[in-house]
Amino acid sequence: MENSQGQIEAPRDRRHDALGDLRVLPDEIVCFILELLTPRDVARVACVSSVMYILCNEEPLWMSLCLNQVTGPLQFKGSWKTTALDIENLPDEYKEGSRMPLRFDGFNSLFLYRRLYRCHTTLDGFSRDSGNVERKKDLSLEAFCNEYDGKKPVLLSGLADTWPARHIWTTEHLLENYGDTAFRISQSRSRKISMKFKDYVSYINLQRDEDPLYIFDDKFGEVTPNLLKDYTVPHLFKEDYFDILDKDQRPPYRWLIIGPERSGASWHVDPALTSAWNTLLCGRKRWALYPPGKVPLGVTVHVNEEDGDVNIETPSSLQWWLDFYPLLADEDKPIECTQLPGETIYVPSGWWHCVLNLETTIAVTQNFVNSNNFEFVCLDMAPGYRHKGICRAGLLAFDEHDSEDAQQKAFYEKRSSSYSDFTRKQKRIKTDKSGDGPNSERTVNGASKNYNLWKEGFSYDIGFLSMFLDEERDHYNFPWSSGNSIGQRELREWLSKLWATKPGMRELIWKGACLALNVGKWSERLAEVCAFHNLPSSSDDERLPVGTGSNPVYLVDDFVIKFFVEEGLEASLYGLGTELEFYSLLCEDNSALKNHIPDVLASGILYLEHGSYINVPWDGKGVPDVIAKCNLLPKKCRTDSFTFGAWRKKLIEYRKTGLPINGSINSVGHSGIWPYIITRRCKGKIFAELRDILSWEDTTKLASFLGEQLRNLHLLPHPPLNFITSSEIEQELDFRDANYDMVSVSTKSNITAEWDIFIRTLTRKKKDVSVRLTNWGGPIPRRLIEKVDEYIPNDFTKLLHLVEDSSNAYKSCSWIHSDIMDDNIYMEPYGISSNSSGNDEDVGRMDNGFSNGCDDAVDGKSWHPSYILDFSDLSIGLPILDLIPIYLDVFRGDSCLLKRFLESYKLPLGRNISKCEPTQDGDKYGRLSYHAMCHCILHDDNVLGAVFSIWNELTTATSWEEVELKVWGVLNDYQGFP
């Protein structure tokens, strides 16, 4: 454009007028906001102005939009916008097939330019740099253990020379043999994406992405088992303590990795501080590594102060190499290498690493736990956050004054946590370019300062790192990090199995268990209880807690000792108090159920006072002085009643309904008090161990047994409500927290107080049900979550069958176990009496962490059910609630077993309300399947995850009625009494 003097003028900047008030935001923020919209909304926003048109037509934006929308296997259509529009199922006339994109002058964006540059850059320049990681050939196991294992990375050649994969794992071979196989794709979002291999090959040939998708599939061995035949674990890495776990319990550990040029893994530390080996079969990879505690430039470490969850905020691998690496001083540069085909790289525990594919690569990798990193893995599973930050970020996890104190012994003292029940806090440990501003949290400016701080006093030593464990946080009663590679129960089972099968490693296993489970302290408490009740001391085989429950349980000789700790002292007292009240009524009623529940031998409260343990026997009645001081009860309590009994527990459950789960934990301040119970040890084995080898006849006998015992349980009279004063009921039912609105409760005046509790609890649960289901995620279809509020009733008097009969009386509630699952059922081989005395010589001994009995071989025996265990979740409720764990966990959705159960149960599970009181929705209230489905949805636990896992076909269901009838339809044929 020329002016009046003939001079060429620069185009006028469009940004100011085209973006309006949004012009104050940098382009990266505007693009981030656009990623939060739907594809249709982005298409609308593109019409607003020329600059918005440019921003809304960028391929990285449409890649993000597309990956957020895809639900099935992905097919790339040549561009991400075309792919996204195809997923939207738009008519062809709305798709920009041959239309040329509009071009505008007068707009420049350094942010967009850098992204465009990264999309089109090539990586040939890396090929000549071999790096500085040591290379070794034919390394012996002894040399590896002495020089590298747990110490530093090394590139190894020769380990894959004899693998078939070394020669046949090419893109062409895999395409020919596995073209229609869908593999899991890695990308920065949590949504799971898969692509058929032929579609993925098409994608890598067409794409120009700055951070291309790559195959990172931990299930390739299950999907394509033939690939497992093409390689073997190198002899240097054979030792793997996770091998002892069953496949469904073991965390992901092996991956097939395929990616094009510019793809790769951004900066990270391997999960659970495991070590890893990675063998490259095709192409070239560039590696960058830092020792533990040395956070790479541009990386932010988030550590959640509540559950210790660790999240890493990092640029893509390509972006880091292009934008951050050039800023590093020589002393701050990582250890680097270019990995060539046939080479295996070893990455020790805790090391930061980043990988960039220089061309299309194919590799296989595995993570492992061995004797050199075992304690670090256990440490990373321990509750708390401070030690996790230190393991990854070194002294950067603390303020500068803390870092100075680290050089003094006082720094190693364990300090109390600043922990909030209701607010999710995070510490941020960040290293970045200068200029972040004075208000940045935990920010260290400049790479050299980062390096110096890392060097001062940090040691990746288990003794040093364990100093940062928070002794106030216990494995059993604090939140479990969702980022842990293994669950709480699986962790305990893993340690117990190691203890039983690796007796020569027990000293190391004990150290790991002390870190992860604090078993040293629990062993002290166990010894105090045994001494007080004149029980034998635990043997070496009995040193670890057993089982997968939420409370520490020990087997000592013929006795079972359980400490109540789950969810803190208040919940523990109600757990034990309710169980003792139940046992008392069970004996008074002389119910046949008592023959199938272990005998209670003693109970009490152990507490720590002035450094010494004190033991107080307690039968559940009254309030011991140590508890009275804790202000957990009303001032006036009857000394002859079960103060912490079932009805008060129900009121507490109501109070906590709808609150964040962490809000119910009340352990800080009362952490030195432990209620406990001692019961007779059972013989036999838990059903979970026998499930796969039991005959169908034995399994059906188990179903009948459960029906009989649940009948006995539900016929047992529950305690009267008059143990609680009416003022207490009113106080609890009127309980409000600051963020909770008044719940809607039926105004029927003749509803009793006990049912008022149930109605209010269910009403509260419905209020946030869609949020809870969304948070659970997993296999629950989004379309069903959107319909859940209209499916669940508004008037819970109908769901609870509160329809008056001729005598103006309402149906009574029942004792419910709440947790009859496969690890709470005992089986005995025929020929051993379930009622034999605990002093008999044939009392079984535990031969591993979970068996409780017979040393005889399991296979070929016939087994019968003998005991139901673990009544700590005992409550008052509707009988139908006990069907949920039995049907989903014990029977695994087998309708034949459910029918056999009902044949023995012989009690009505409800009343056909449509016949009692005709209503507009009478048909659904007359279906027992509807009642069961509603209770599944409103359940405190994610039972819907089990539902959609058992019935995979329901992931395509379009209505809750479809799910209901598929899962619970068999109940509609049940008439109560046959």
Automatic annotation (TrEMBL):
<dbReference type="InterPro" id="IPR041667">
    <property type="entry name" value="Cupin_8"/>
</dbReference>
<keyword id="KW-0408">Iron</keyword>
<keyword id="KW-0479">Metal-binding</keyword>
<dbReference type="InterPro" id="IPR050910">
    <property type="entry name" value="JMJD6_ArgDemeth/LysHydrox"/>
</dbReference>
<dbReference type="InterPro" id="IPR001810">
    <property type="entry name" value="F-box_dom"/>
</dbReference>
<feature type="region of interest" description="Disordered">
    <location>
        <begin position="422"/>
        <end position="446"/>
    </location>
</feature>
<dbReference type="InterPro" id="IPR003347">
    <property type="entry name" value="JmjC_dom"/>
</dbReference>
<dbReference type="InterPro" id="IPR011009">
    <property type="entry name" value="Kinase-like_dom_sf"/>
</dbReference>
<keyword id="KW-0560">Oxidoreductase</keyword>
<feature type="domain" description="F-box">
    <location>
        <begin position="19"/>
        <end position="65"/>
    </location>
</feature>
<dbReference type="Pfam" id="PF13621">
    <property type="entry name" value="Cupin_8"/>
</dbReference>
<protein>
    <submittedName>
        <fullName>F-box protein family</fullName>
    </submittedName>
</protein>
<dbReference type="GO" id="GO:0005737">
    <property type="term" value="C:cytoplasm"/>
</dbReference>
<feature type="domain" description="JmjC">
    <location>
        <begin position="222"/>
        <end position="385"/>
    </location>
</feature>
<keyword id="KW-0539">Nucleus</keyword>
<dbReference type="InterPro" id="IPR036047">
    <property type="entry name" value="F-box-like_dom_sf"/>
</dbReference>
<dbReference type="GO" id="GO:0046872">
    <property type="term" value="F:metal ion binding"/>
</dbReference>
<dbReference type="GO" id="GO:0016491">
    <property type="term" value="F:oxidoreductase activity"/>
</dbReference>
<dbReference type="Pfam" id="PF12937">
    <property type="entry name" value="F-box-like"/>
</dbReference>
<comment type="similarity">
    <text>Belongs to the JARID1 histone demethylase family.</text>
</comment>
<dbReference type="GO" id="GO:0005634">
    <property type="term" value="C:nucleus"/>
</dbReference>
